[in-house]
Task: structure prediction
Amino acid sequence: MESAAGNLYNQFQSLRAQVDGLNEGIEPQFLQLAVNFEECRKKWLRSGEELVSCKEMLTKAETERGALEVKLKHARNQVDVEIRRRQKAEAVYEKLERQLELIRELLVSENNGNSVHLNEEQRSALAFLSAHSQAAQAAKSNLNSSRRLNTIDESASLLSDISYDQTDDSLDWDTSTMKTVRLRKRQKRVSHASTQIVFSCINDFVNESVVAKTTITVPVNGGAVEAVSTIETVPYWTRSRKKTPSTPVSDFPAQMQTPKPKGGKKHHFVSKTVIKSEFCVPCGKRTKFGKMYLRCQDCRAVTHPECRERCPLPCNPNAFSTPIKNTEATLADFAPATSPKIPALVIYCIKEIEHRGLHEIGLYRISGHERMVKELKEKLIRGKTLPPLNKVEDINVITGVLKDFLRNLPEPLLTFHLNKAFMEAAEIQDDDNSLAVLYQTISELPEPNRDTLACLMIHLQKVSQSVDTKMDVNNLARVFGPTLVGHAVPDPDPMTILHDTNRQPRVIERLLSIPTNYWSQFAYPDSTAMDSAHHSVTPDRKVSMLGPVTTPEHQMMAKTPSSTSLSQRMITIKCFKIKDIQHYSGIERLWYIVSPYLREFKDFTNISSSLKF
Amino acid sequence: MPEQSNDYRVVVFGAGGVGKSSLVLRFVKGTFRDTYIPTVEDTYRQVISCDKSVCTLQITDTTGSHQFPAMQRLSISKGHAFILVYSITSRQSLEELKPIYQQVLAIKGSTESIPIMLVGNKSDEMAQREVETKEGEAQATAWKCAFMETSAKTNSNVKELFQELLALEKKRDMSLSIDGKRSGKQKRADKLKGKCSVM
Result:
């Protein structure tokens, strides 16, 4: 028993000793373990935080990348536009070249034929022209020579090579080249233009002679462009002295005006004697029996001679010459064959609405008298002459005509097949992406639809900015949604109608948020490219549509009016038709040459134009 | 859209800006907003009493700014009763109702059993009045429909308008008030109360 107890006791003792041993060792170890755990925890925490911050950086980078991609897309679009513009400009350049050549030949041949000694002025003109033609020849023969457009060639080829996966660095690099190209181009232009161009014309009549001279000076340092015109006649040919100098531009007989190119915006007026009284388009008054009036041969607009400058532009040749059935005619049938392909009806209505409708409450919301709308539309589409819109008392009739015209097209303006694309583009939440897709979709529109849409959008932006109408962007979008966007099929079922009606305004809202100058390139292609002087409003508004990437052309327009006038001159020279010139002689022919310049120069205040007799 | 036979559909027509939405909102919500927002199409629902039971009055507020024949035909064929609104400040707005009335007549066959109200809205703007009350009445007589001048702004005759419209319906016995009958809402409220008392 005792031994057992002793045994047990021993066992107990040994157990205790073991426990003690264990207890002694374990505490510091345990502490160590705890410390280790604590350290481990801290490490985890730190790496966790790092992970979070890394993730944040990643998302930031992602969004940046997205934004840059959109910019890249915009830049690419812009480049495409520029390339197209360049091609156009080149075509114009070549045409001009040819025409200069023709003028030169004319001068040479005329002198030979008449066997009259070359006058001094004539000689200088000839010298200029032949020098020019030689230069042009040289430029053609040597591609690396100073032919102006080569620089643009380079830039275009560089930029059009941007591929989709290029990095930000390359984009930066591209824009920088674009800038330098722009500078170079500008320098070239100025240097090229820093010369005195003298146009002169002499004619010897039986007993009098007319000497006329126009000198255009463009200084190298970019100073004021000067134009001096002199017309000298011997005393007794009074008629020419009296008539032409006093009213150099506006009152000149219509035949003498330079016929503008086919694609142009100008009217081609011929003067006639009034037999049947008609309404003058600009002033709305009747033409009086037996007096002279002007009629545009292309669009049949009628005007008093003194109102011709105010005649609405552009001229739309086709629109009124072919009466068409409204129900079947598509937009393209109404639009002229040359850009901007905007139906005349749209332009005339918009002109009138902007003229007196911008203070009307509920413009486009309130509808006009149905019968009057129908009648006016009928007259505009089918009539031989333009009904004077300022005689229409209720502006809502005119808005009604415009809406009715657009609504009853066999296909909505945004077309059936792009309907879905537009709706989906407008519903993209991210503004930039949405706009990028919209730009893409707009570029897929047929030209007449695109140009007309552009014209309308510019107009509606004006309306929305006019507080008096109470028609902000949302309201206009609600009214025009069904009219412009329509449905994807010709005869939608009721459910589609209901569903689409709620989605349509969003598209218009998005389209209205696109800057005006984007639309202007379609609605006024001539004016944005070369003709900004005639629309003095546009340059003020020019905000680059694509933010960082600036277009060389726009910059030039805004900053250097002198080069603008130069580019304009290119256009006007282009219009010379040699055979037309041959029909007139003496002072008339001179005016043929001089009048376009005077007309464009009067837009610039820094140009002094003087006439001496 | 499932066809609910119990619904009574009223469609409001009229030119743009005559106050169709204002009338409907005044009636449904009791409010008047001075904003200027064109309607695309809105539908409001209100519980009313009909043949001694409850039914939904469905008011469709249409668009006046652009007439789309397809949509108009749809609204007319679905509608049971019509409110034709013009503004007493615009003769043109009364003129514009004529083709709409003709359309209703063409789709419904005859308008005799169909409740139609001709409404001259904006009766508060007496200074700008272009259409005399008598002219509105004459038009209503020609169309064999009821006539009323209202003002959504001053809440004049708005409730009366809808009351009279419902009174014109001879096929059903309808009224705006739902006393004696409990609406769904009230029933639900009672149920909730009952549960509370148990707890």
